[in-house]
Amino acid sequence: MKFPGQRKSKHYFPVNTGNPFVKPANIANVAQPVLCGIDQTLVDIEAHVEDAFLTRFGLRKGESLMISDDIAEQIYTELKQRDLIVSEFAGGTVANTLHNYAILSESQSLLFGTMCDQIKIGSYAYQYLCNTSSKVNLNYLQPVKGPIGRCFTFISADGDRSFGINAGLMNKLTKEHLPVDQLQKSSGLLISAYLLRCADDDPIKEAAMHMVDQAKLLNIPIILTLGTRFIIEGNEKWWQDFIHEYVTVIAMNEDEGEALTGFTDPLLAADAALEWCDLVLCTAGAEGLYMAGYTDEANKRETSGQLLPGAIAEFNRYEYSRPMRLADTTEPLKMYSHIAPYLGGPVEIKNTNGAGDGALSAILHDMLANSYHRDIVPNSDKHSASCLAYSSLSQLCKYANRVSYEVLAQHSPRLLKGLPEREDSLDEGYWSS
């Protein structure tokens, strides 16, 4: 497990003997943390086409349409033959996050989903495997006799974008194929809202609920990414009840937050969501990102930074506190933090798809690093209180913001490499709180 951030240590004892007051566990016998996730396996395919191409396949310019397996195969074959494809990247909000987590932490994550049982070199399924970190364990994917999901983005000469979406067999994951024994070894289960609003005849919906029930029984943190506001709208009460019963952490953008809570202000949306879960990440585009969580009165730490105005006055007062589960607090105290885009955002935003997934992967890295540290140094002062994360809420914001920036600055929705080893632009106390 690679710990997040560049940390400075002061040693008050001979470093070759170690800290005499902290007795570490035998690291060789401590299992590395594993993050599990269930996803609809799909590939994002981007191509430059003429308007006649769209018309020939019944696509409408500037719109998004579902297409059949046959049409998707015809489109893909022609795009390949004519060399019109610009990029093919593995997608899926959960798989993106698992990949990024593996890159950041250098630890294993485990993906549950479907995959073509016959894979041709150079095909979309092949691209999916090639664009996924080797640290993501794909051994438990369920083989299917047919295509996985494909999301085509067609770019016209005038720059207009049209979309063709083919689900293939990405929703055919069955609960019988899911290895519950692997979940028992994990430190978190990641799901998306897409899984739970599939058609009733899609087995992935039942499979996801089966794993969620098992994770709840095992007291494993369940992390939910909301995906899109259209899934939430009209079903707000169902989602609120589901989150309250199962979810530890939710990740959303301001639109999804509004659909879930009714608040357009992302800070108020994050605050409202705390009524149902323990930790909230809300990305807000050019405004940056907000986080909300709980700490205990005895563990609160005031910020040394400027107190920020907002819908909640001086909302960041306790942002130097580490987040906790509400159930682990004695005198619960809500806390919030905000950060503007790193360096004002990239000079050129090459891709917005996956930025939120990148931010969430940073949060999960810090959470699982905390779990690992608890195992290897159980009597550390870090664990005198039961916290959800290794770092403060303020630092979680900074880390999430930095990873999100990296995704925005590249074409792929997934990190292609880890973050730079040195961040000269960061202040001295970046990881000190």
From TrEMBL:
It comes from Moritella marina ATCC 15381. HAMAP family: Gua_Ino_kinase (MF_02246). ATP binds at residues 283-288, 356, 401. This is Guanosine-inosine kinase. NCBIfam families: PRK15074.1. Pathway: Purine metabolism; GMP biosynthesis via salvage pathway; Purine metabolism; IMP biosynthesis via salvage pathway; IMP from inosine: step 1/1. It holds the Pfam family PfkB. Keywords: ATP-binding, Kinase, Magnesium, Nucleotide-binding, Purine salvage, Transferase.
